[in-house]
Amino acid sequence: MPATSVTPEIPFREYRLANGLRLVLHRDRTLPLVAINLWYHVGSRHELPGRTGLAHLFEHMLFQGSEHVGTNDHFRYVQQVGGVANGSTWYDRTNYHETLPAQHLDLGLWLESDRMGFLLPALTQEKLDNQRDVVMNERRQRVDNQPYGRAFERLHELLYAPGHPYRWPVIGSMEDIAAATLDEVRDFFRVYYSPDNAVLTLAGDFDLSEAQDRVEAWFGDLATGPVRPVLATPPAAIEGERRDEISDRVQLPRVYLAWEGPSYGTDAWYAGSLLCVALGSGKSSPLYSDLVLGRQLAKDVSAFIFPTELGATTAIVATARPGVSAADLEHALDEHIERAAAAELPGPDFERARNQLLRSAFAGIETVESKAEQLSQFATYFGNPGFLQRELSAYAETSPEAARQFAKRYWRRDRRTALTVVPETRP
User: Fold this and answer.
1) pLDDT (tens digit per residue) in 358-370
2) DSSP per residue over 116-183, as a string?
3) 38, 132, 350, 425 - which has most CB atoms within 10 Å?
């Protein structure tokens, strides 16, 4: 597909407040709505070993009220005008977002500015203890008591060298969450939750000049944060294959093969993204059609690469069918990996992947919420809210040979982690 056929874009205006807040505005009057999307450039990778989980804990803490907003009133105010709000945490960022009727833009800006500038006066030990319990319960439900729930944590412990910030889980360890003190939480907020470490995007039905004025009114007098610590350079990838087997309360073995890959936004990352989708996404993909439908060795199979800043986890995961050993399933996966490095994927498989990824990118510009999210993401990671054009061109122009080179360079046996989860043996 020629790059000239890929034309969708998100028109925007960009401003920088005196305190460093980056503001991105996109006007869309299709519906009388406004999406407010605030990204802080802080995630679990900004934590320290032994003090994990603070970024995710703060996602919860910021909904517990600030100096002028009562506990749980953030959601209440938004819902009273028919809006929705939420937040999420990732390795590299934390984000908060509201979608409101357009006439209530000021409400959303007030709520976000108050917790950016005035959270600490309302931060109490009682609130910390309450949300600590919530996060610990979330961990129990999503990780500790979930089938295969510990697998990705163990996978990253094996894949990344000690000291690498992707080695620990975003949600944190139970011990670290329990040990977090009020002073540590306050210090983490002071360092990272400041306007000069944030991108605020508005998308929807508003006048651009008026919206800029309202943002200046609500955020302009908030103080710039302290100098943030320079994070250590991540250690080099581990040489040699690492292997482990863990038992869990599951019915079927599951095989995880993982490698360190390139950073999101690089040419190699897009080649890896196309390779993963071409090889393992959908029932017509080579992995699925062979291992699930053909030889019936696997119950399911997938391949993926994370969109992360300091390199990326890329992995192939497959669950064995009853009676199939993990070793036999891994051997079959190795056949596909070796084939992907030796020869280009068939044209139809590659074009299917290209069309699937372009369709997904186009779907990301259908609503004001998704457009605000993309603008914030690209501004945070690349300093360019208009990075969508680069992403679309990368998917349109990347060749099957580039995907083959990705498999040859990154999916190497001497750089991989192989983890198997097997059913617990009962006495």
Assistant:
1) 999 998 899 999 9
2) HHSSGGG--HHHHHHHHHHHHHHHIIIIITSTTTTHHHHHHHHHSPTT-TTSS-TT--HHHHHH--HH
3) 38
